[in-house]
Write a structure and sequence with these properties.
Helix content is 29%, strand content 26%. It is of the alpha+beta class and 129 residues long. The protein has two domains: 6-68, no CATH class; 95-128, no CATH class. The protein has a four-stranded antiparallel sheet with strand order 1-2-3-4, covered by helices on one side. The protein is rod-shaped.
Length: 129
């Protein structure tokens, strides 16, 4: 449906972009200003006698006019900080306190080859690698 939307001017007032124009057969004036809704930046359209579809169409045209005028919408700032999940803590066995026989058994469980002739220090290094 053609809403006959015409953008007249794009200006900055106190570093806020404002889009002015007309719509409809009677050329009713409107003004669109960006605002944050949740995590999005939308255009708040002010005019008399607007239905929802016309508001959306004017908002889309207004955003396009801002891009054409090389003006960017303000960046939407998330209202809630997303929680970062902590990585699970993996317990590393204390190989230094184990005897050589236990270290060789641990090497066998991990599938490490060539451990049978190694000293305790070398077994610990191989297990931690």
């Amino acid at each position: 449906m053609n809403k006959n939307i015409q953008i007249i001017e794009v200006t900055l007032v106190n570093s806020t972009p404002i889009v002015r124009g007309t719509f409809g057969a009677g050329l009713t004036a409107f003004e669109a200003v960006p605002f944050q809704w949740g995590g999005k930046m939308l255009m708040k359209v002010s005019a008399d006698g607007l239905d929802r579809g016309t508001r959306v169409a004017i908002g889309i045209k207004s955003k396009a006019a801002l891009r054409m005028a090389s003006l960017a919408l303000p960046v939407a700032v998330p209202k809630r900080v997303k929680k970062v999940e902590a990585a699970p803590v993996v317990a590393v066995p204390d190989y230094g306190s184990m005897d050589v026989k236990t270290l060789r058994a641990a090497c066998k469980e991990k599938g490490i080859k060539g451990y049978s002739d190694l000293k305790k220090v070398d077994l610990v290094v191989r297990l931690l690698a």
